[in-house]
């Protein structure tokens, strides 16, 4: 690989490492005087280009002849000479010199860019160089760590003899840090469903050098390529199948697939009328509605196919006089079928002998007087106008029609309003009530009841909520009206906080460069009760923070302590107004001190979360009554967390590895992301970016041993003991993903600021 000139930018991490590696292998170039190549062999001197060369050539030929004669003579002496591969100061090595490379083995596959080379030497070997790097020899052993780029690499180990001669060993290794890629084709979406006793799991593993695949605990024979594996199921069982793939370098990948055996047929429920009902109407067209309890692949009613869409269906049915039996057939996604028969008695409503038309308008008026239904009156008048286009009473009939149609519209609107009102009052949930009111507003956006319905809707939005908080159209989400922040409700109750030593020891099995003392502040695992609260779904954005600064009118508090600092990733002051940096409007507010975050929360009618509130919102799955290690689950998942792993396309396992990537981050390639991005990493309650993106300020003061104090077990605990440091949580975009665990605790000075630190707020729900 050609070395880059100073100032050239490396296009990738591998190029940078390869440049460094090849530079080290080449050593220092020889000068044009008598300076030797360092690490590459004997001294090279300049001589006369004519006489010097001829003299040396003759001398070499004479010396070679004498040595050949001497070798023949010596070989005949018993016990004389050294045997084996030998090089000395003139190219032969004393037999006592021995150089062995113990690790790595020649041809080995390695899954780390840092390679530990070790071995043994003996005899006259005084020093060892590995790819041009000198390493010490102690008790006949040597070891050194090299950085190598991915791909096929050679490692040259040279032993330096006391005489200055060298002996050399070379080995080849393959560096492969990319894990296998697991693709699942069946199920196409989760959970996969079947009504059989087994589900055929299908997919493929993309890997150049496969070593094995394990599915549901069993190793399958085909280590790469496509696979089809039947997964046994019983009853109405829900099962999580683990697919693991390994390559020759020791890289591995893991996928979890949810599968459900569903042998139950769908349930069909009629809406709006009861089985066996009676209908009397002028029209024989009945709109029938029914609901099913699961998604369908096929819907048939009265022999007509309906397009599967959702759970609620409506169809127009032709009724005959008398009893009608209407067949409804439903088939779910896995082929379970259900049939129902809707029985309805129909009788055509007679118009009591009234004329359907005719040219005598007085008879029409007499008939209308006997009717109470507006729709029937409209039908008769429409018939008269259609059948008597030249009647002198046509204009009078049309005027009556306009009046009746307006009355009908008013009646329809009144009915829609009554339905919306009664429906909203009958709902258990305010969200369902809001949905019924929205039916009216959608159909009658400018109706005479729209203002009243809007007021009722607003009351439901605020019902039982603190001032300044309203419901949104999405159930479980709320709005903090001051800063338009979406919030999620975290219910009251106990949860498990912190980590146990057993969990930490298991975690550290893959992190050999760290010890448990680095995580002691997370112990012990303990139960904490937290009252219900609203947690901001997103981190506070630059747009929101700029609005606060403009309304507050200053970037300092009353003691002239600064809230934030200008930054092209954060907010900037232009023409006397604060504004988010271009392109960073929805990115999290950064360069914000604890004081700035605290003052923002106060302005928004909120507070910074306590450490306990933060961890519950990140980790507690109330539906399954379990605590999660990451917001999305108990295993780190590449690609759904804005951490250093994402930017370097590799799961970072060790602290040493992270430091290497950190040093190679020459151009700030790792950055913040929009606060509403990466929904796949949401916590159980729906908060985004609880792991990665930016560290988040908590209101607690930090101390290593707080979890070991009785105060940590109080209801709604907060560490109020001043320590000059505040708690920050969640990791950040430049941190290894494994350090973005829900339980990981970090500390930050409350007047400090960084591109890696932001915040979100919370509000109490009572």
Q: Span from first to last CA? A: 66 Å
Going across the biggest sheet, name each strand in turn.
Answer: 2-9-8-4-5
Secondary structure: helix percent: 10-25%
Main sheet attributes: strand count, strand direction, barrel closure: 5 strands, mixed
- Using only C-alpha atoms, the radius of gyration works out to 40 Å
Shape: elongated
Number of helical segments with 4 or more residues: 13
Unreliably modeled segments: 1-57, 68-93, 352-358
* Number of strand elements: 40
> How much of the sequence is in beta strands?
25-35%
Q: Look at the helices and sheets and give the structural class.
A: alpha+beta
Round the mean pLDDT to the nearest integer and report it.
80
Main traits of this protein?
23% helix, elongated, 40 strands, five-stranded mixed beta sheet, disordered N terminus, alpha+beta, 13 helices, 766 residues, 30% strand
């Amino acid at each position: 690989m050609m070395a880059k000139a100073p100032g050239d930018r490396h296009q990738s991490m591998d190029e940078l490492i390869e440049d460094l590696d090849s530079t080290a292998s080449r050593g220092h170039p020889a000068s044009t005087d008598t300076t030797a190549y360092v690490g590459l062999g004997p001294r090279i001197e300049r001589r006369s280009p004519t006489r010097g060369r001829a003299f040396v050539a003759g001398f070499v030929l004479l010396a070679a002849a004498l040595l050949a004669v001497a070798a023949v003579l010596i070989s005949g002496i018993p016990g004389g000479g050294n045997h084996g591969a030998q090089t000395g100061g003139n190219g032969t090595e004393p037999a006592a010199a021995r150089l062995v490379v113990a690790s790595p083995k020649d041809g080995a596959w390695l899954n780390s860019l840092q390679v530990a080379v070790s071995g043994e030497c003996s005899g006259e070997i005084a020093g060892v160089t590995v790819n041009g790097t000198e390493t010490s020899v102690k008790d006949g052993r040597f070891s050194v760590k090299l950085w190598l780029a991915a791909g096929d690499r050679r490692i040259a180990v040279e032993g330096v003899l006391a005489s200055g001669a060298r002996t050399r060993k070379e080995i080849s290794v393959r560096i492969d840090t990319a894990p296998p890629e697991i693709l699942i084709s069946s199920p196409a979406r989760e959970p996969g469903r079947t009504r059989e006793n087994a589900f055929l799991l299908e997919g493929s593993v993309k890997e150049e050098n496969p070593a094995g695949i394990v599915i549901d605990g069993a190793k399958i024979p085909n280590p790469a390529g496509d696979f089809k594996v039947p997964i046994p199921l019983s009853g109405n069982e829900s099962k999580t199948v683990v697919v693991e793939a390994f390559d020759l370098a020791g890289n591995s990948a893991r996928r979890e697939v949810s599968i459900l055996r569903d042998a139950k047929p769908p349930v069909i429920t009629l809406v709006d009328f009861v089985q066996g009902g009676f209908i009397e109407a002028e029209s024989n067209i009945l709109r029938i509605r029914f609901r099913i309890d699961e998604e369908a692949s096929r819907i048939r009613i009265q022999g007509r196919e309906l397009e599967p869409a959702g759970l609620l269906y409506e169809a127009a049915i032709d009724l005959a006089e008398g009893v009608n039996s209407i067949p409804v057939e439903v088939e779910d996604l896995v082929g379970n079928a259900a049939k129902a028969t809707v029985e309805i008695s129909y009788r055509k409503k007679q118009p009591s002998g009234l004329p359907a038309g005719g040219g005598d308008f007085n008879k029409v008026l007499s008939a209308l007087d006997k009717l109470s239904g507006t729709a029937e009156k409209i039908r008769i008048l429409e018939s008269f106008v259609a059948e008597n286009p030249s009647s002198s009473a046509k204009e009078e009939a049309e005027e009556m029609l306009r009046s009746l149609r307006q009355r009908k519209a008013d009646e329809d609107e009144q009915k829609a309003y009554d339905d919306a009102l009664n429906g909203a009052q009958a709902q258990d949930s305010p969200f369902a009530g809001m949905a019924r009111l929205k039916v009216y507003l959608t159909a009658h956006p400018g109706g005479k009841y729209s203002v009243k319905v809007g007021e009722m809707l607003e009351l439901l939005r605020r019902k039982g909520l603190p001032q300044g908080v309203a419901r949104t159209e999405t159930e479980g989400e709320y709005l903090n009206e001051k800063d338009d922040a979406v919030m999620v409700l975290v219910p009251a109750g106990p949860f498990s906080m912190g980590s146990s030593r057993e969990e930490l020891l298991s975690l550290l099995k893959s992190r050999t460069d760290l010890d448990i003392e680095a995580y002691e502040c997370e112990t012990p695992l303990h139960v904490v009760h937290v009252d219900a609260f609203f947690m901001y779904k997103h981190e506070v954005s630059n747009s929101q923070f700029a609005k606060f600064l403009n309304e507050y009118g200053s970037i300092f508090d009353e003691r002239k302590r600064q809230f934030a600092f200008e930054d092209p990733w954060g907010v900037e002051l232009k023409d006397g107004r604060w504004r988010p940096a271009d392109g960073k409007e929805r990115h999290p507010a950064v360069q914000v001190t604890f004081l700035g975050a605290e003052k923002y929360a106060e302005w928004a009618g909120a507070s910074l979360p306590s450490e306990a509130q933060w961890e519950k919102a990140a980790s507690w799955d109330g539906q399954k009554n379990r605590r999660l290690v990451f917001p999305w689950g108990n295993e780190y998942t590449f690609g759904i967390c804005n951490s250093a792993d994402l930017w370097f396309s590799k799961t970072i396992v060790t602290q040493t590895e992270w430091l290497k990537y950190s040093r190679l981050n020459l151009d700030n390639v790792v950055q913040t992301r929009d606060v509403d991005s990466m929904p796949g990493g949401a916590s159980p309650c729906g908060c985004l970016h609880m792991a990665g993106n930016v560290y988040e300020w908590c209101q607690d003061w930090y101390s290593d041993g707080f979890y070991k104090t009785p105060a940590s077990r109080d209801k709604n605990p907060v560490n109020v003991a001043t320590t000059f440091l505040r708690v920050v949580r969640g990791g950040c975009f430049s941190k290894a993903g494994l350090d973005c665990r829900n339980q990981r605790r970090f500390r930050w000075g409350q007047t400090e600021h960084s591109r890696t630190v932001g915040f979100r707020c919370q509000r109490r729900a009572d």
